[in-house]
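The authors assume throughout that readers already know how a fold can be written as discrete tokens. The format is easy to grasp once an entry is in front of the reader. For illustration, here is how one protein appears when written out as sequence plus structure tokens:
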Amino acid sequence: MVGPEAELLEAPGLSRRATRAWALVAVLLLLVATAAYVVDQRVRRAEEGDLDDCVAQAQTAVSRAYRPVVARWGRVRPALDNGASLMVRTSIYRGLSEVASGRSSLVESARDRCARVAVLPFHRTQAEHRRSCVRLLDAHADFLERAATDARVLGGAWPGPVAGCRGRRTLEG
């Protein structure tokens, strides 16, 4: 061929076959990336569901563990606040310690269940959610253990919610 058309046809570049191959590779990569995204989203939803269950079970465990302690504390607090004698205060604290004794095992069971929730390491939000819940449950179990040893801790700060330990409900003490 002669003229400018000849130069275009003879110019170096990709052949039709090579262009088709690259297009096929691009389509395959797009399909693989889409499939990976869909699978990752399903795994994340499953992890979030398991963490929601963890929070619900933990809320139940914390509530059950504290119920008798809070009930007794509410009944005896006025006597403690109104300057009961040392003998009466000692007796009240001994009774509170007995009520708190063994209550931490309920929270520890919930903590162990939450710690076993499987979360992929690169799912940072879910991993932090699990760590926060475990830390909160550790704090509640430790507080109940200390109350069983010395009920005077009940007059101080109680464990509260840890940011990130949320599911359908926020876990609070």
In short: DSSP finds five helices and no strands in the chain. Residues 168-173 have pLDDT under 50 and may be disordered. Residues 16-81 form the longest helix (66 residues). The two ends are 86 Å apart (CA to CA).
